[in-house]
Write a structure and sequence with these properties.
The protein is mainly alpha-helical and 282 residues long. It is built from 15 helices and 2 strands. The longest helix is centred in the middle third of the chain and has 27 residues.
């Protein structure tokens, strides 16, 4: 996966060259090029690879998803949201620049993502479907709705059903989107399985985040530990306890593997990604 990640990083490093210079562009690059796992673009490219396609022709589409993800992180960190000082081991965007510049940088990354996607070298029908998938996952029926509900449950404990609803949208939708976009290009007839796979990975990933907020090393995870408790957020750990949350992660990853085996693909390529997520420490 390192070669794939390097290709993503190389594209991202030049992806904003056509934009006008200024503090907003600097802030966009600052956040976009911060050290990250690049999970979402890797998921997109791995699906294509698992279907035997040359994924290198689709790096731009993969990076459009990363731009949406980065925009969401910039806005999540703002004082009106989570009010965080650290992200990926660096000052958050609004701390490095200022709040107004951070808001504009997030807005610009979201817009740039769809500009890049609109120019992708795929058929118009597939392009429209990919745009629709990413827009739906990012908007009020997806990630933004999840953030809305996450804020609603600050200072009050959500039930298990409510937590699943929050994180199916806040985290799961933007993990499902690249899987669906790749399926739209490679094998649209299997999209239902990819929805199940994406939502399952998304929930497992979020529970891991909740666990790392309690057990993680700030120097490794690159953000403040204990911020969920400080912000009185509803988490899986606060609801279930640490040990039960860790067991639930294992259950979701087992379900993710079951989803992969339903797909007519090179299973080993997708299993490699799932195992990398399971072993993550940041």
């Amino acid at each position: 996966m390192e070669k794939m990640k390097t290709q993503i990083e190389t594209y991202l490093a030049h992806s904003l060259e056509a934009l006008k210079d200024g503090p907003v562009k600097e802030a966009m690059y600052y956040s976009l090029l911060a050290p990250g796992k690049r999970l979402r673009p890797i998921l997109f490219l791995k699906v294509l690879q698992a279907y035997g396609m040359d994924y290198s022709a689709y790096i731009d589409i993969a990076c459009s998803v990363e731009m949406v993800h980065t925009y969401s992180l910039i806005h999540d960190d703002l004082p009106a949201m989570d009010d965080d000082d650290l992200r990926r081991g660096r000052k958050t965007c609004h701390k490095q620049f200022d709040e107004a510049t951070a808001i504009l940088a997030g807005d610009a990354l979201l817009t740039q993502a769809f500009s890049i996607l609109s120019q992708a070298n795929i058929t118009d029908d597939k392009k429209i479907q990919c745009i629709r998938i990413l827009a739906e996952a990012s908007g009020q029926n997806g990630m933004i709705y999840g953030q809305q509900e996450d804020l609603h449950f600050e200072n009050k404990q959500a039930t298990m059903e409510e937590l699943i609803n929050i994180h199916t949208h806040k985290t799961g939708k933007l993990i499902t989107a690249p899987l669906l976009m790749a399926a739209q290009i490679a094998a649209p007839q299997q999209k239902d399985v990819f929805v199940e796979l994406g939502e399952t990975i998304g929930l497992a990933y979020q529970i891991q985040d909740d666990i790392l907020d309690v057990t993680g090393d700030e120097a490794i995870i690159g953000k403040k530990v204990g911020s969920d408790i400080e912000n009185n957020k509803s988490t899986y750990v606060s609801l279930l306890g640490l040990e039960a949350s860790q067991e639930l992660v294992k259950d979701y990853f087992k379900k993710a593997l079951e989803c992969i085996y339903k797909l007519k693909i090179n299973h080993g390529i997708m299993i490699e990604v799932v195992q990398a997520i399971l072993k993550r420490v940041k």
